[in-house]
């Protein structure tokens, strides 16, 4: 099942994609956000499937304005240095424990919305990543049971302001400029993909040029491990997201370096999950 968030008369609505058409689940009496739907447990997703089978009113995919699939996660945990080749190009040692940091909802937009290059930097980099959505709450989750806590997956562009990222040992500043990343286009339930979304091709393209080309099986810490680790300090809740790390090919590591600028089009595509596309504009 593929769910998405979209703007309906200025308000968020939850949709079920059926081919090129969207069923407005909110108009059918379901919640307006995926966050709220997931808090209802398996019954929420079952209700969405039933509504999709019976609803008569649909809109075409091309007629909607996408919002990020999860509107207000309680926690958005991003993972750094999670592909060996990216570790090498970044000149770090492979981590023995996941490198984790926070990303705030104000720092991302949905599919089709512009990414904003801030006026204080010209080092605006792309990072294509797999995104994990938690569907079942838990604390101290055992790795062997961790995938039971996954509701589904999406695509993320962890847009990074590199010169701010390197101002200190903490990456928060470089990873949280307003509207610098993107999330979407939709949420794909876990049953549509291989366990842990492993074995999926991930590509990032800038103006049609392939700059990242990797496979999710090559992550240092797989989805189950990330869930187990992230559930140690705090309970994971339905709607929480884990942004699982980027492979090699980032612009800062290239010679010459490649950074996103106004007028560019950045696309991140993950096999079976979706194609996330955003133009770049100058902000402020």
Commentary on this structure:
Helix content is 14%, strand content 34%. With 284 residues, it is α+β, with helices and mostly antiparallel strands. It folds into two domains: 2-67, no CATH class; 76-282, Fumarylacetoacetate hydrolase, domain 2 (Alpha-Beta Complex). The strands form three sheets. Strands 1, 2, 3, 4, 5, 6, 7, 8, 11, 12, 14 and 17 form a twelve-stranded mixed sheet that branches.
Task: Write out key terms for the chains shown.
34% strand; alpha+beta; twelve-stranded mixed sheet; Fumarylacetoacetate hydrolase, domain 2; 284 residues; 6 helices; globular; five-stranded mixed sheet
Topology:
Layout lengths: L1 E7 L2 E8 L2 E4 L9 H6 L2 H13 L3 E3 L5 E2 L8 E5 L3 H6 L9 E4 L5 E2 L5 E3 L6 E2 L2 E7 L15 E8 L2 E2 H4 L6 H4 L5 E9 L11 E6 L2 E7 L7 H8 L10 E3 L21 E6 L3 E9 L2
Parallel strand pairs: 6-17, 8-14, 9-19
Antiparallel strand pairs: 1-2, 1-5, 1-14, 2-3, 3-4, 6-7, 10-13, 11-12, 11-17, 12-14, 15-16, 15-18, 18-19
How many domains comprise the coordinates? Answer: 2
| CATH topology category name of the largest domain | Fumarylacetoacetate hydrolase, domain 2
Rg on CA atoms, Å: 18 Å
Oligomer: single chain
Low-confidence stretches: none
Mean pLDDT: 96
How would you sum up the major sheet? 12 strands, mixed
CA-CA gap between termini:
38 Å
Quick structural summary:
14% of the residues lie in helices and 34% in strands. It is of the alpha+beta class and 284 residues long. The chain folds into two domains: 2-67, no CATH class; 76-282, Fumarylacetoacetase-like, C-terminal domain (Fumarylacetoacetate hydrolase, domain 2, Alpha-Beta Complex), CATH 3.90.850.10.
């Amino acid at each position: 099942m593929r769910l998405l968030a979209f703007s309906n008369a200025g308000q968020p609505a939850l949709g079920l994609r059926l081919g090129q058409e969207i069923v407005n689940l909110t108009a059918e009496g379901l919640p307006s956000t995926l966050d709220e739907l997931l808090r209802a447990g398996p019954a929420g997703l079952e209700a969405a499937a039933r509504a999709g089978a019976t609803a008569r009113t649909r809109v075409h995919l091309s007629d909607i304005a996408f919002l990020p699939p999860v509107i207000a996660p309680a926690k958005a945990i991003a993972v750094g240095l999670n592909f060996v080749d990216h570790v090498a190009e970044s000149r770090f040692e492979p981590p023995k424990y996941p490198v984790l940091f926070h990303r705030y909802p104000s720092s991302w937009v949905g599919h089709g919305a512009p990414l904003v290059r801030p006026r204080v930097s010209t080092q605006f980099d792309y990072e294509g990543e797999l995104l994990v959505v938690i569907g079942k709450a838990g604390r101290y989750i055992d790795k062997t049971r961790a995938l039971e806590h996954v509701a589904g997956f999406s695509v993320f562009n962890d847009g990074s302001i590199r010169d701010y990222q390197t101002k200190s040992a903490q990456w928060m500043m470089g990873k949280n400029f307003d509207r610098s990343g993107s999330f979407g286009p939709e949420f794909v339930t876990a049953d549509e993909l291989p366990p842990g979304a492993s074995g999926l091709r991930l590509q990032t393209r800038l103006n049609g040029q392939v700059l990242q080309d990797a496979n999710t099986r090559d992550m240092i810490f797989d989805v189950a491990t990330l869930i187990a680790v992230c559930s140690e300090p705090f309970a994971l809740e339905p709607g929480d997201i884990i942004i699982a790390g980027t492979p090699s090919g980032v612009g800062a590591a290239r010679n010459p370096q490649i950074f996103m600028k106004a007028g560019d089009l950045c696309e991140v595509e993950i096999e079976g999950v979706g194609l996330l596309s955003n133009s770049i504009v100058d902000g402020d």
